Amino acid sequence: MNGNVKGWIGFLVLVIIVIGGAFGTSHILPSKISALTVTSVSSNVKGDFIASNATYYVNLSSPVTSLSFNITVKAPVATGAVNATIISPVLLNITQFNSTYNSTYAALIKQGESPSNATANATTVAYQDSTYVLFNNTYVNTSLKGGTATVSFTATLNSTALSLMKTGEPVIASFTAASGQYGVVGSIVVTKDY
């Protein structure tokens, strides 16, 4: 009987800890109120901004050499540093990839590599030699003023990558901004129709 009582007391203590932990951690869970948000995006090429998912859609109707963006973010604090990163989409030239892969694989096999190692190494070499960024990754540091900041950058477009874009097929650049404990992730979706 004494063992049963100790067992029930142990069980109740465990239940209290679990319930207390569940209610006690609600203050550390993220909320929409405490997030950094993208409020607007503008560009030198007309586009559409969807605030609900922080995505800017831009369509290139004719060749351009660069894209300029102004991304306005809002924070629940008035001042502080804002660090933003824009990561370019990468485009693969599949013809170049296949050619580089085949020649590299053949050379590695002649050097005595096993087929599995030759496959892995040839794939790596071919991918590195056959991919092109649409523009260089960009890092911008700015400051909040009155709880808002504008991240401005100009991306010089890589003509090879631009030529690899298929008409109507989107490529996606990612955008992140952070100020202290607050952050946001967004996207810039680029298509072309020429």
Ordered list of secondary-structure elements with their pairings:
Blueprint: H1 2-24, E1 37-43, E2 47-50, E3 55-60, E4 66-74, E5 80-87, E6 90-92, H2 94-110, H3 115-130, E7 131-133, E8 138-144, E9 148-156, H4 159-164, E10 171-179, E11 182-192
Parallel strand pairs: 3-11
Antiparallel strand pairs: 1-4, 2-3, 4-9, 5-8, 5-10, 6-7, 10-11
CATH architecture of the largest domain: Sandwich
- β-strand number: 11
Low-confidence stretches: 25-33
Count of individual domains: 3
Main sheet record: 6 strands, mixed
Side-by-side strand order of the widest sheet: 2-3-11-10-5-8
Spatial separation of the terminal alpha carbons: 83 Å
Counting DSSP H or I runs of 4 or more residues, the number of helices is 4
What is the residue-mean pLDDT, rounded to a whole number?
Answer: 88
